[in-house]
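Quick entry, no commentary yet.
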Amino acid sequence: MSTLETIINPKQRKGKKAVQAEAIYQALDSMKAHVLPLSSLVQSELNVRKRPVDEKSLSELADSIQAVGVLQNLVVYPMDNDVYGVAAGQRRLLALHQLVEKGHIASSFPVPVKIVPESDALIISLTENSQREAMHPADQLHAFIELQKTGQSTAEIGDLLGFSTHHVKKCLRLANMAPELLMELDADNITLDQLQALTGTTDHERQVMVWNNAFGWKKEPRHLREAVEETKTPVENNRLVSFVGLVAYELAGGTLEIDLFTESGFIENAPLLEKLALDKLTACAELLAEIEGWQCGIARLERPSFYGNDGEIFSLSHAPEAVISPEFADLLAELRAREADLREQALNAEEYHEQIDLWQAVENCEQQIESIKHRTKNQAWTAEEKSTKGVVIYLDRDGEPCVIRGVLDQAQQEQQRIEDESHSESVNDPSTASVVIESSYSAALWKSLSSERTLAVQAALTQHPNVALAILVHDACLQVFGSPYAKTAFNIKFSRSQDELLKNAPTAQDSEALQSLNTQFESWSVRLPEQWQADFTWLLSWEQADLVALLALCAAQTLSEVNQHAPLDNTLAKALLPIEQAIAFDFRQWWQPTKANFFGRISKDQISDCLADAGASDKALEAVKMKKGDAAELAENTLKETHWLPSCFLDVNADTHHTDNAQ
């Protein structure tokens, strides 16, 4: 979380200016409202919110205004030619304009407003927006700059708006950062803490270079500060220098510092050296991808870890099993025979120089063998597999390029998925094409809902130990008699997945499924003898029924199926369907939608659709006219006893009728 403030702290309102701001705000509350035609209202530069408005939320606001009118006055100030600038209420103004464009209202639509002097407009806008919700840091920076232009000091700005002087100084310093980085802040690509870390230098070019060269853990604020403040890097034993070359560095404008204690000296522009290395690696990666037919080539200065921050960007596919052709098999056999012969000669050689030559020949044979293995392994990738995967080239500790093949770029895959869906929609004939359910739920909600479902299947599976045993044996056969990389239902390491599932779905903490699992876990824990971890012999005296039941509990808790993104057919955790069918699983017995776990996380229109789907059409109409929070509570209370489920929890091939209808 950022250490910088983003919302006004009422406890900080101490100075005379703060009293003045409160007085302005109180006066605004008691001020008489006027009615002006919409055509006389325009957006104002004094409105502190500069970022683009979310179109979806704007449409929802427009629908609400069309249904119930403008419930909150806009705050405006007079401009030239009978035009009024909107200092507070920009979203309402844009929503009204949207209704005009759709032909729902006229440009003369009467709008309730409160008129204030222009001198108070900026203060009112900043105060109103900060108190209503945490204002975006970028908007806050712009607002402080505008107040500073009026001649007010940092202390006066802080007193006026209830911020600490220290906070205002920080923001104004950040406002002088490279414009490219401020654009990144506007786009939510950089945090305030990261931006603050880059203030270690006032050189805009260096700030941008360090940020663009940072990946994964190097984007953490402390690493950014170290990089931006680093002034001298030794040339000696520098892997980047080995890869780029000093000549290329100096031709790019880099300089060296030579002192009396080293022969090689120091690199004075470390970010430039990193940029040159990354550019060269990128060219290599793109060329290799083009030659071998991969979807993309990616460059990194360090080897990706494929977990943590890197895991959110990349994933690594299992390499296909290499098939060695007869000619390569004959060559490998010949090389191995030669290697064995040379190794025996080296061990029996009496002369030292003869031993050295023979061992060198052994090493050459080993390198040729590994080269053939490597080549056949790379050739095992099919053109279809390469079309969806890429290669990553990184530098090892000696500055040598290394290649990882079969890498999935998560962002690119998601973009490709969206493009494929869009293309499919455009070419399919609606009269003959099968219906594809398109979801507008967020990725976080998909992850949460699928995690709750998996928890419930875990709990239900413990009641069917015979099924759990059959699945476990089948999984073992898949891996012993088939491929070690075969997809299995259980995680054979028997690692409990509850922590990860609860991280995805915090609302499941009090769920019936988790309570059932915890109760069983505690009852079995009491039955375990002292020092039970020493060996397994104590289990030999247990009844088979108890062994199977305990195995079912252990195995069930390894289930970890979670949707990371919205599925194309709108069905959650499809891999669990065979298990659910085997145990006659009914999610209605374990879960019901509430404001916390579902309705509060979807739009008001979606809440209305859910109510209509459950047969509560009258409640669906009521929800449209309510605030989103109230609509979510209405849906929860209406559907509490109906056993209704969102369609994503239902098998698309099964009967999806509801057991009860909402009253």
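second:
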Amino acid sequence: MNGLVIYFKMAAARKLESLNENFLTCSICTEGYKDPCTLTCGHTLCKDCLGEFLKTRQDTIRAKSIPCPYCRQVTQAPQPDRPVEEWVKQIKPSFLIQGLLDTLACRGNTDHDTENRCHPCQDLGESHPAKSYCQDCDVPLCERCVKMHASLPGTSNHVIGDLGRAVKVTRRQMCTEHNEVMDFCCRDCNKAICHKCCVIYHRKCDSVVTIQSIMSEMRSVLTRNKGLITKSFHDMDRSLQRHKSQIDAISHNKDEIKSQIRQASQKSMDVIKEKEKQLLEELNEMTEKQSGQLRGRIKSGEIDMQMYQQYIEYITQVLKSGSETDMFDVYQMCHSGAIKKATDRDVTFTDSVPDSKLIFVSEIDERKLHKDVQLGRIQQNVCNVMDTELGKTQCGTFDVMCRPVLHKTVGIKVDGDRKQACPSDVTVLVVDGEETLLVTDYNNTCLKSFYTKNYKSGHSKLDLASNPSSVTRLRDNQVAVSFWSHNEIVIVRVTPDLVLQSRVTKKKKYTCLTALSPSTLAAGCWNPPCVDILDVSGRVMRSVSTFNSGENLICKPSFLCATDKGNILVSDIDSDSVYCITPEDDVVFTYTPTGERRLSGPRGITTTSTGHILVADTPAHRVILLTPAGEFVRDLLTSQDGLQYPCGLMFCDCKLYVVEYNGGAVKVFNCSVPK
């Protein structure tokens, strides 16, 4: 009899749990009701959930009505003139729903007080400590009830766990078709099945085993995957923390540089103000001297005018009186020259004053004001470089006497290439925090990009109209490409995939490019030999060919590079020289060595973070290092370093990227000295 009572109690508990899940759950948040309200249609929802739903429906707010999220039936707002929150507060739950909630609340409080006691025994008026827990019935059991639980047909297959365990045993999954425990696994179909499914549907399958027999394998796989996911989680967390700290450092660095710029600006203004003060004082002194001389002359002239006035009045009175004696006296004065001498002073006064005027001669050359008068410059000093492939940070700066170490070799052959890859030039961008390598492939008439995204290596290919020769960075996500024998310049957007943005058709064929600014290019031409300054629309702003010396040094420019001072480096394969020129037709230096140092077809040229110059001497299989003033330092790389036919060069983040056009690859050398 006691067993039947326990069985019915267990069944009642399951019924109550089913009631809570099916009838006391909000259809919006799918959780138990919290402050419920019942609409006209009979559906009950949490007031907060309904309020948030109404805020997203401006049409219903304007209509002063409440649509049911479940069946769309409309309930009129109790107080339509008040806010939406007030509408919901006025709606009460139904009597039945509220009664069920109150009953469950009372039961929940009782369960909380007696959770360590056997529930079936409590229902019989007894009190025994619970030692076990039924996963299916969700009730604690004593030892006696556990035995009774196992003996009854309706509860014999329930999962019983230890009540003291921190983690409860997972309940067994039941077959939806046969209502049997799924104790088997079909490896061929990759699904859990019950013993009836084994006989009916899987008797022809080759690998049907019990789930218990593969528990060790499943634990091993899950543990391994957990370890991999945990490692990825921690790696991503470290990466995000590093990025956040970098953002903080960038913000702090920005504030420091802003302060330095303002200090430099203030110093420049102080110098200009001091010069202004000196010039104004000098002007005041000179004008005061001129004015003082004139004021003295004016005072003397005013005295003479008074004397003249007296003579005029005296002669007028004499003439008016008609006295012969007075007239004779005045006549004698005029005849003796007394009055004439006084009038002659007027001539002396007017002739002795020079007509002088001060002028201001400006010493500022307005044509060069924009580049000669500078507050300073902002440059990137790369000290911490993230190697995305190896996942570690390299610290260091370029050292003139360092020995470059080969870091990696990037082959540029990709699927779809019709010919052997032949790279000619290279540049590096950082797109969305990822390093992107861009290479021009001469033989396959295309531009290629190589990158790592979401920890996976990728590449992109953009077919072009002709054989590309040069590529240069305009912005962090934009490059320009020129061609050996095609009168066009192409602008490409890098995402890091390659997207053609625009084509600029020109009368000249430009073999090489370098960016002077995001909107200004320097382009080298062979016929006629020159270097043109262009904007990105292709308009020629200036053509540099005949220099101030009258000599045209440029013959066949193969590669160009802009310096941090705005000058242009030119490698010329016809004159075997390297030039540094200004956009205003001035020659900064010329490097044309002879003897064993003689260049034999220089091509790629780039600068380091210290301003030193690197030049690819292609036939000699070497890269030479020059000072910023164009003086030879040493051979940085030779054939002994595994270098063959270097062409395009790019120095970025303490790494030297060297294109080997015969090898179809880009070699990356580490040129930093670790701290």
